[in-house]
Amino acid sequence: MFNPQKFIEESIEEIKKQIGNRKAIIALSGGVDSSVAAVLTHKAIGDNLTAVFVDTGLMRKGEREEVKKTFRDKLGLNLIVVDAKDRFLNALKGVKDPEEKRKIIGKLFIEVFEEIAEQIKAEVLVQGTIAPDWIETKGNIKSHHNVALPHGMVLEVVEPLRELYKDEVRLLAKELGLPDSIVYRQPFPGPGLAVRVLGEVTEEKLEICREANAIVEEEIKKAKLDKDLWQYFAVVLDCKATGVKGDVREYNWIVALRIVKSLDAMTAHVPELPFDLLKRISKRITSEIPNVARVVFDITDKPPATIEFE
Ligand code: XMP
């Protein structure tokens, strides 16, 4: 049986040994894995760890504030928040292809991160990698390795959660006193809302996506379904439809709801949700968010569809 308290004690000692007096850096997204890795490492080496939250402008509503409140104010981590919204949105201008969007975001993220790593003279990179991340993707990657950043900086990689699975990481998160909003956070793709506003990423579509997503999350939590579902979110389609508000016909955006159950994201199915819940979400989105004409509900399982739309 996994014993979170014992793991925490042993892992703090191990991290101290691995890092010593060197400066370390971690990219903190607010997801449960990077959060637990950051808090454990902070317990081991204190302010020699710098956590970096890159605000790409592609985050969910309130995410940046929540990360600041939890990690800087409550847990006392040395946190740098980088406002990189303009850099990301400029780099994405005119780009419609999902894989191209992913590539641009991934590359820019590493560039921004490297700038901070250079500033603080980091020698170690802490990552929240868990077992499925390397078993399923790279299989043979060595447990001790270095990573070279684009401008040549080389960092030694430390992965305190390398042998763990998601349920164990959630137990650690609870034991470490992280709030439920982080312990039970739904998976969120690295490229963020860029793959949830289909086609070109614009401020208008992002704003609709953020607001609609906040409504979906709020209603699902109110209905106490959040812990049963794998992911529940809103997507803005890359096309418009006609709607009518009062006497006025308007041609406006379409929001799709994606709500799935899954164990590991390899397959997923759409559960039968209370119809009044779906109607309530739809009503709130069309009445509270300007420029949305319709809300549609995706009833496609994975396979054949993926969980994300892009
Ligand atoms: P799909 O859409 O392939 O998603 O069924 C499976 C799981 O992976 C997440 N996902 C991503 N995560 N970068 C990520 O870090 C990505 O580019 C990405 N695309 C999909 C998705 O949210 C789901 O949990």
Question: How does this model look, in words?
Answer:
- This protein is α/β, with parallel strands linked by helices and 310 residues long.
- 41% of the residues lie in helices and 20% in strands.
- It contains ten helices and nine strands.
- The protein has helices at residues 4-19, 32-45, 63-74, 85-92, 98-119, 131-137, 166-175, 180-183, 203-222, 275-288, and strands at residues 24-27, 49-55, 78-83, 124-126, 146-148, 154-158, 231-245, 248-260, 292-297.
- It has a six-stranded mixed beta sheet, sandwiched between helices.
- Helix 3 links the parallel strand 2 and strand 3 (78-83).
- Helix 1 (4-19) crosses helix 7 and helix 2 (32-45) crosses helix 7.
- It is globular, with a radius of gyration of 20 Å.
- The two termini are 38 Å apart.
- The model has no long low-confidence stretch (mean pLDDT 96).
- Xanthosine-5'-monophosphate binds next to loops.
- Enumerate the distinct ligands: xanthosine-5'-monophosphate
Number of helices: 10
Helix content: 40-55%
Major beta-sheet overview = 6 strands, mixed
Low-confidence stretches: none
Give Rg in angstroms.
20 Å
The whole-number mean of residue pLDDT values reads 96
Order of helices and strands: HEHEHEHHEHEEHHHEEHE
Widest sheet: strand ordering: 3-2-1-4-6-5
Structural class: alpha/beta
Oligomer: single chain
Tell me the strand percentage band: 15-25%
Q: Span from first to last CA?
A: 38 Å
Shape assignment: globular
User: What is the count of β-strands?
Assistant: 9
Q: Would you summarize the structure shown here?
A:
The protein has ten helices and nine strands. It is of the alpha/beta class and 310 residues long. β7 and β8 (248-260) form a beta hairpin.
